[in-house]
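Chapter summary example.
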Amino acid sequence: MCGKRGKPAVLMNKHSTKSTHSANIVSGTAADAGTAADLSTGAAIPATGKPPRRPRLTRTGLLPSDPKSLAAFAELLKLRSLSESTQKEYLRNIRRLAAQTSRDPAILLESDLRAYIIKLKDESHYAASTLRTAVAAFHTFYNLHLGHQWTLFSLIRCPDDNTLPEVLTIEQVRRLLINVRLPRFRILFGLLYACGLRLNEGLSLEVTDIRDSGRYIHLRASQTKGRKARVVPIPSATAADLRAYWKTHRHPRFIFPSLGMGWRDRPATTTGLGQATKHMQDGAAQACMRLARAAAGLPENVTCHTLRHSYATHLLDAGVNLRLISAYMGHASLDITAIYLHLTTVNEGQARAAIEQLTPKLPPLVF
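The structure predicted for these 367 residues follows.
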């Protein structure tokens, strides 16, 4: 078991074998987002000019330019105990609506929102899942927050295409990880694959989440989709990698601390990580994944979540029980996990062999 917060017994084990990645830690740590070369190789590229700064979010998750109606909406989202990522996505959708209409979204009519949603479908070509999230944000804002009883939301349907998720082979996973030079990102991606974690579950991992001498990860309800806590076994090599990386910054709480805002104006160093106030953000990991994916020559639809799909498929290939895989991944139903049965070549080969045995051996026919 881990020690008290600030004294992580597992990560401070002096007798553990250091990860091979720890020897590659460079003195100039890349920030959470940056240039292509920064993320993929760790090498600094002379800047040709400072990019324009993005407006900073306030502590409430709002921008200074946001309409007043968004401040009360942000409070509602917190009252409903939605995950941090969902709150951000809902605010982003309402903010985008305000920008597109050039009006405070609180004064829009139902017909205005209807026209906007049609535009998202026909012109912006939103995927079904993206459109569902936007509609959920609008429903929460207009019907729950403002108290409207608009019937528009009962009319909208966003059916998913019946497509199978992208899955990498074990060799492709190896090739992907080899093309990630910075230890923090390689270890993060290795963790997502080795434990089948969602990206935000890996990023928000805390020192005290590593349990039983590094044999298990305890994912708290606040970390997971659907607020469902679970315990996931972690390979010893992955635990050693996490321990080695943590020793480079020794943050009392986070495994993957963020360098924070304004990193471009500070010298590249790992010393600031120990005082970080939040964990690394998902944009940095996604940017690194795009670069590593291209360097490895993998399909464009490979994302951080592809590592989770690959985890489930490879466990099935190895003969692990479907119900156990479902528990490790935190699925609400076996039906969700069962989709990976269509992706495993081992099961297909076993099924083909079983089908061949269905033909009874009969005397030959005479024609």
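To summarize the output: The first helix runs from residue 36 to 40.
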